[in-house]
Amino acid sequence: MQGYLSEERRGAVLRDLRTHEGTCSRDYLAAARNVLRELVAIPDLVQRLPLVRKPGGYARNLLAGNDAVSVWAMVWAEGATTSIHDHHCSCCFGVVSGTVSETWYRAVDAARAVPTEEHDRQAGYVACMLPTGPNIHRMQNRGRGEAISIHIYGFDHEAHSSSIETEYTAVAG
């Protein structure tokens, strides 16, 4: 599954993400931002990869991973949306192409959340957050055509199936 990037590029990405402080440090977030900025600056590199797509939804494509981090290309079909969720690990993402809308939420209780703000993330946008949250959000492709984003999570993809810790239901504020 990690055949999307060449072995050399995969090794360079994982090397650049390695810090002595671990994946919950400011050093790691700075390294992840730098990797994302490099990847979104050359969209042709990502767009020409043989990425899996999911009609009507989003598809996760593992680009690189080890026991500390996983790097995914997400291909968003028109209308694709995630659940409202929080992460158990650091979460960084950058938009390669298209527009991904991100809605932020505030928890009302352990299962419900209200929307607090919304932003359209254009190609070139990069953000990182630590799991010190809550960092509750939902991502959607509301635009025409597909969108592609790169996500770097501070978790071992072989030990966990997802970066999501808690899912919420939206309620009116």
Automatic annotation (TrEMBL):
For whether the record's keyword set contains Iron, the answer is yes
Q: A Pfam family in this protein?
A: CDO_I
Q: Which UniProt keywords apply?
A: Dioxygenase, Iron, Metal-binding, Oxidoreductase
Domain of life where this protein originates: Bacteria
InterPro entries in UniProt: CDO_1 (IPR010300), RmlC-like_jellyroll (IPR014710), RmlC_Cupin_sf (IPR011051)
> Which one of the record's GO molecular function terms can you name?
dioxygenase activity
Which SUPFAM superfamilies would you find in this protein's record?
Answer: RmlC-like cupins (SSF51182)
- PANTHER family hit by this protein: CYSTEINE DIOXYGENASE, CYSTEINE DIOXYGENASE TYPE 1
Query: Can you tell me which family this protein belongs to?
Result: Belongs to the cysteine dioxygenase family.
Put simply, this protein is called Cysteine dioxygenase family protein
Organism the protein comes from: Bosea rubneri
